[in-house]
Amino acid sequence: MDRRSITPDFSALEVPMDVWSEPFWQAGTADGRVIMPRCTACATFRWPPGPFCPSCHTQEVEWVSAGAARLYSFTILPVPAADTEARPQFRVPALAEFADAPGVRLVSVLADAPIDGLAIGDALTIDWRAAANTSVPVFRLAQDKR
Amino acid sequence: MAAQAAIVGVGSTPYYFRGESAPQTLFELLGKAFFAAVADAGLKPEEVDGLAFFASGFDAALLIEHLGLRNITFAHCVSGYGGGLAAMLDLASMGIETGRAKNVVCFGGMQQIGRRLGQAIGNFAPTTDNIFHRIAGLSGPGQALALMARQHMHRFGTRREAFGEVVLSSRTYASTRATSIRRKVPTLDEYMASPMLADPLCRMDFCLETDGALAFVLSGADRAADMPNKPVYVAASAQVGTRDWGRAFFWMGQTDADFVSAGHREVAQRLWATSGYKPADIDVALIYDHFSPLVVMQLEDFGFCARGEGGPFVESGALRLGGALPTNPHGGNLSEGYVVGTTHIREAVEQLRGTAVNQVTGARTALLGGGPAPTPMSATILSNER
After folding, report:
1. How far is Cα B321 from Cα B100, in angstroms, rounded to an integer?
2. Contacts with B115 (C-beta within 8 Å, 6 or more apart), sequence order
3. Concatenated DSSP letters of A65-81
4. Which of A52, A72, B236, B378 is buried most deeply by CB count within 10 Å?
5. Residue B213's closest CA among B26, B10, B19?
């Protein structure tokens, strides 16, 4: 059986933002880019975005492209179905690491992916899906192995 | 340094399946545990002058009011959640050592009516920091910890059979205890066939959601010898907060080394280095078992086996009576009951008094670890020798 993960609907989700996190959401919503905050003094990334570098405590950051994404880990959650006769559905929360943003792990959901062949290290792309006040990042497999 | 404080009294309510403690209130459960613990210590309630909490604690004023206390000179709470379990005993011990209080009562309590701890993340209001878990669909700690378990399996070849052995060992211990919620021992085949709740975690890998309350009286070590029970000394403790572990399953940004740990790496280093104890000195281990893979990872953190060898260590039967490290002989959070780990303190006391149902013969020292959860984390060594 070809079991594929669900693609959640985020249209009602309100994403809270502050001055430190806003650029991430704005870049994704504007043109689908994934950018991450890097310390201007020591180049350490901080995630989630915040007011101080965890390494040297500098405040300023520059936002840089995160680069290629890979699957670091994932879980598979059965989604309760209203109709007991319905096909079982699954949601796949996942973690991505990025080639150009070491130390950052982005938590999101892996959408519309074949569940049974998933492996740590799989190449990912990031899709941005509409939420109430912004777009949100969703993982996709770079190569669908179906 | 010789221990300055000892556990001299223990009290507990029965353990109830989630919601079944009604119509008792949470403060009623806490009060019943408190009065039982104070009586066990041979004290009167008015002799209690200290209160110590963890896991966000309880409303101290309301407790003082309900319990009719008038002489409280020390009332404090450890930050963090289940990770602070052992630090609660450390805090009480500090209160006694500094002369701020003579008899400190520590509490654990849980009542899940109309809410479930297992869905804690989903219950939080959205913030800039937790919004990613909501997008992902991670609504409880077990779901998030499943990603760490999968990485451990990937990196070290850890098998589901190891998690299964944690569960089977726990159930085997629980099967002999009247206090246990889950007493039927499954086969490994039944474990392997248990439905996946957060792959690679199946239903049996998740601990119980139960109601109940426990209380523990700590008094000065010098006085403890003259009290009714064999004293259980707080021999050594360590508390560590580090960005390398951070908010743990609320974050998922731990260092690579910490991602396959249970957050106790630096706690263990500090505990062994400052106390002079070593893993081989521990006769019985009380390892926080909210989710079975985290038991495997904690055993590695504390150095009972090398990093990555927790699976084979567990599969060797190490956790069982007569094994290399009898662990959670009460059945733990997985099988006996879950009161934010405080049942582990009760079991440590029973083991060191020599009155446990599944007694480890001649047990002198017990390790109590806080739960893998947001930092600071903690661990304590309890001993019946001063």
Report:
1. 40
2. B123
3. E---EEEEEE-BEEEPP
4. B378
5. B26
Mark whether B191 is an active-site residue: no
Kindly list the distances between the CA atom of residue B13 and the CA atoms of B16, B110, B234, B326, B341, in Å, as whole numbers in the listed order.
9, 11, 24, 25, 14
Residue-level pLDDT at A145: 58
Q: Is A146 a residue whose pLDDT tops 60?
A: no
- Residue pair B135/B81 in contact by the 8 Å Cβ criterion: no
**Inter-chain contact A104–B128, Cβ cutoff 8 Å?**
no
At residue B120, the pLDDT reads 67
The pLDDT tens digits for B345-358 are 999 999 999 999 99
Q: Which residue of B has its CA nearest to A74?
A: B147
Q: Which DSSP state fits B271?
A: H
How far is Cα B21 from Cα B16, in angstroms, rounded to an integer? 6
pLDDT for B294 equals 98
Confidence of residue B121 (pLDDT cuts 50, 70, 90): low
Contact B233, B382 (CB under 8 A): yes
Q: How far apart are CA A20 and CA A37, in angstroms?
A: 9
Asked whether the beta carbons of B367 and B286 are under 8 A apart, the reply is yes
ipTM above 0.90, yes or no: yes
Based on the residue annotation, tell me whether B338 is a catalytic residue of this protein.
yes
Contact B150, B158 (CB under 8 A): no
Which amino acid is it at B170?
Answer: S
For the residues of B285-329, what is the DSSP string, one character each? Answer: EE---SBHHHHHHHHHHTTSS-TT-HHHHHHTTTTSTTSSS-B-T
- Chain B residues in contact with chain A using a Cβ-Cβ cutoff of 8 Å: 126-129, 131-138, 143-144, 146-148, 150-151, 154, 195-201, 243, 252-253
Contacting residues of A for B126, CB less than 8 Å apart: 14-16
Structure tokens belonging to residue A145: 């192995």
**Residue at B321: amino acid letter:** L
With cut-offs at 50, 70 and 90, classify the pLDDT of residue B296: very high
Other beta carbons within 10 angstroms of residue A89's beta carbon come to 14
**3-class SS of residue B284:** strand
Cα–Cα distance measured from residue B193 to residue B303, given in angstroms and rounded to the nearest whole number: 31
- The letter for the amino acid at A128 is W
Q: What is the mean pLDDT of residues B298-317?
A: 98
Contact state of B198 with A49 under an 8 Å Cβ cutoff: no
Q: Where are the domains of chain A?
A: 22-141
Query: Residue B164, SS3?
Result: helix
Q: Which residues of A touch B135 (CB under 8 A)?
A: 8, 10, 13, 107-109, 136-138
Residue B114's pLDDT is what?
A: 75
Which domains are delineated in chain B? 5-115+211-232 (3.40.47.10), 137-207+234-383 (3.40.47.10)
Smallest Cα distance from B294 to chain A, Å:
16
Secondary structure tally for chain B: helices H, strands E:
15, 12
Tokens, residue B70? 């008038």
Q: B252–A16: do the CB atoms touch at under 8 Å? A: no
User: Residue A42 CA to chain centroid, in angstroms?
Assistant: 25
